[in-house]
Amino acid sequence: MPKWGSIAVGLLVFGLTLVLWSITGSFDRSGAPETDWFRHIILALSAGLSLLIIYLLIRFGTDKSGGNNSVSAVGEYLTKALDSTGDGFFILDPNMKFVAFSERLRVLADLPARLSAPGASMHDHLIYRAERGDYGDVDIDIKQLVANRLEFYRTLETDSVEERFGEQVFEVIRKRASDGSVIAIFHDITYRSEWEAEIKQSRDAVERERGRLRDAIEALEVGFAMYDSDECLVIHNQRYAQMYSAVSELLFPGRNYEEILREGCQRTNAHEKTGETIDEWVKERLLRLRARDQGAVHDVNGRWLMDNNYPLADGGVVTIRTDVTDLKLAETDLEEQTRMLHAVMGSMAQGIVAFSDDLKLQVWNDHFLEIRGYPKELARVGTDFEDFMKYDVEHHEFDKGSPEYDVSKQIARARLFEPHAFERQR
After folding, report:
1. Strands across the sheet containing 223-227
2. In 3-state terms, what secondary structure has residue 65?
3. For residue 337, is pLDDT > 80?
4. What is the pLDDT of residue 404?
5. 353 and which of 38, 67, 91, 364 could share a cystine (Cβ 3.0–4.6 Å)?
6. Angle, to 10 degrees, between the axis of helix 33-56 and the axis of helix 3-27?
7. For the chain, first and last CA: distance in Å?
8. d(CA 239, CA 221)
9. CA distance to 244, 303, 325, 337, per residue, from 331 (Å)
């Protein structure tokens, strides 16, 4: 009992005595000396009894260790509260001695009681666990490991670390108290750790597949690019960037196709070759992409590229750029040679015609049409020799009794590529 409580009890006893003294006085009105003497004796005894009660209560009723017991009680309550959370913990004083160590953590770490008791050394604790192999490689320098871990707790360079006890993984959160002691609280994150490991494995697998896809795209001899449903670039290969070198630095994921087109047109003045404005030039190529157009050929920096755009299920588009410059040049050369051949044949007075091995019309001059009386509509590359023969029969070019009147015989003779003559009837 506190000191002031003891004094109050003593005073209460003395007060009750005074009340008793007053009451006895009110009943005795004789004024006899014996009665007054008796009353004074009672008052003196009451005063002495009150002082004795006060002394005894202060001497034996007051718990001199009350403060310590209160602190111990609070510590016990704190320990029980932290244990009830299901997380282990320990508290180290500035000298790296344990002040408290939760039973749950001791059991999980499979430690002897002496190493987790209040006053036990963190140094001995670390040596025991290192020798047991809790920290991995058995060939490690135990002294250096213990020194490093003690320094780790003294400096608290990081607030949170992970530590493993058997199959369980814990996140250790460490804080320093105002008196220099260290509080370490352990949170079981075994399932979270397993989940994070699975996520990491999945991410690694995705990255491997992405790497393979990129390698495959880079191996293509054509320019490859993928745009999403918003017409923003997703991925492209180096060949595509080389084809559009004027805007290669703009080819990064998220860049809009229209922005790339417009910037490229402004840099190269490509619209001037087609006699269009920049807006017209950009609009036409946007329409090609949106229509998933295929087969268009255009000049890019002196190279002829064929565009082929393929739709994706999510609304995106894959665009393939094929360099057809050599084919285009060969086609141009062929057209030029054909033009020159027609010019030479047109200047000749004789009628000339040439059919392929399968008797398809290839070249001719106007004199041939005039001499044979064929209409110009019949003279098309690829027209079958049989069509010419049928025209002759229908227009009475041959006598009905002559071999030429039979179209099948005419075709058979033509396949022999032998010269022959016939008499015209018209």
Report:
1. 233-236, 223-227, 317-323, 303-311, 294-300
2. coil
3. no
4. 59
5. 364
6. 170
7. 149
8. 7
9. 24, 14, 10, 10
